TrEMBL record:
<keyword id="KW-0472">Membrane</keyword>
<dbReference type="InterPro" id="IPR020846">
    <property type="entry name" value="MFS_dom"/>
</dbReference>
<keyword id="KW-1133">Transmembrane helix</keyword>
<feature type="transmembrane region" description="Helical">
    <location>
        <begin position="397"/>
        <end position="414"/>
    </location>
</feature>
<feature type="transmembrane region" description="Helical">
    <location>
        <begin position="233"/>
        <end position="255"/>
    </location>
</feature>
<dbReference type="Pfam" id="PF07690">
    <property type="entry name" value="MFS_1"/>
</dbReference>
<dbReference type="InterPro" id="IPR036259">
    <property type="entry name" value="MFS_trans_sf"/>
</dbReference>
<feature type="transmembrane region" description="Helical">
    <location>
        <begin position="324"/>
        <end position="345"/>
    </location>
</feature>
<protein>
    <submittedName>
        <fullName>MFS-1 transporter</fullName>
    </submittedName>
</protein>
<feature type="transmembrane region" description="Helical">
    <location>
        <begin position="113"/>
        <end position="134"/>
    </location>
</feature>
<feature type="transmembrane region" description="Helical">
    <location>
        <begin position="174"/>
        <end position="192"/>
    </location>
</feature>
<feature type="transmembrane region" description="Helical">
    <location>
        <begin position="146"/>
        <end position="168"/>
    </location>
</feature>
<keyword id="KW-0812">Transmembrane</keyword>
<feature type="domain" description="Major facilitator superfamily (MFS) profile">
    <location>
        <begin position="18"/>
        <end position="418"/>
    </location>
</feature>
<feature type="transmembrane region" description="Helical">
    <location>
        <begin position="12"/>
        <end position="34"/>
    </location>
</feature>
<dbReference type="InterPro" id="IPR051337">
    <property type="entry name" value="OPA_Antiporter"/>
</dbReference>
<dbReference type="GO" id="GO:0061513">
    <property type="term" value="F:glucose 6-phosphate:phosphate antiporter activity"/>
</dbReference>
Amino acid sequence: MNSNSNAVKTAGAYRWLIWSVMALSYIVVFFHRMAAGVVRDDLMEAFHISATTFANLGATYFYAYMIMQIPVGVLADTWGARKTVTAGTVLAGIGSILFGLAPGVLLAFLGRLLVGIGVSVVFVCILKIISVWFRPEEFSTMSGITSFTGNLGGVLAQTPLALMVAAFTWRNTFMAIGLATLLIALLCYLIIRDYPAEAGPAAAGGKNKAQAEKLTAASFIQVLTNRHTWPGFFLFAGFFGSYVSFTGTWGVTYLMSVYGMSKNAAANYALVATIGLMVGSVLIGVISDRIQSRKKPMLLFGFIYLATWALLVFVNGGKPPEGILYPLLFMMGFCCATFILSFAVAKEVNPPQIAGVSTAAVNTGGFLGAALLPAIMGMYLDRAEGLAATALYHNTFMYGFIAVVIGTLCILLIKETGCKNIWQSLRK
């Protein structure tokens, strides 16, 4: 009895150590995700590129991330989180160093591609670890806490990044981040364990590898052919794509052009949206777990997110009063975090032993939106002529608003799970 109690305590402590190391790598993920918007002018000047090319350079990360999601889900369920995250983080570190050293835009694209491929493994593997090391009723809360922590990288990629670039140049900054990423990869290899039994006899109080069903082609196809998987896919695409389009790509230039702000001042507004996403990720996840509902909080906060975009696009022709921007952007980030619940739903409407593939399928949607929307906006900005800045960005952000409308409508199609796995009942 006493031995079992000690094992549970040891496993409980070690799971937080594993999660902490993986969360550290997830901070790097968010840094690279949001960094392009702040160094936009530096990159366009260094490589002599247009707005469209810049948008494509930024989107390379998201294309790579998106394409890798299903393979990553398979790797998380078969190869394991430890090996997958370590290899991916090493690749991301090399890509960041190459990006900083790139003499021309082609190598910059390659560096950005390597970063995207490398960091694409982290989130799905964290969700896999949470599904193994934590209780089912903790899944949504832990997903939210993970998103909150990862968004610290988004915070670093706003005002702090602007200050770092001003002090050390953008090249030196990205090379330093690359070296730090390689050190994090070493920690991942040394500390992460896929199952409690692998952490030693004292921690063997939870699930083990023998309990994990072998991933088969049939189970993989089952996730993709499950109609309850797809509403979360399109919800995440619309919400996250629009959010990244504003905070990570065009929001800073919009604020500079329409409101006449300095780069640092504009970055502060984007930072507020990032903080909103961090807070929302935790609170929305906690609310969902506490009330034992996925769909109700998704409906509430999803429609508020739609309202924030309506205010941004339609109030005063696309130029809301400057005095409401801080609360508006905070609420935009906060309510965008609704997408966190789509991972829990994906896990709960599919077989529990393939949580990696099911969450990866939904994750693909977010990065499809994050890759396409900024590029579409960039093409419009390049082609639009003769418009004042306010009208120009009003039209540009209409694409984001439409994406949010689609994502919000998809919430109506979400299957309520009651915060438990209902896969077996769906088969009847």
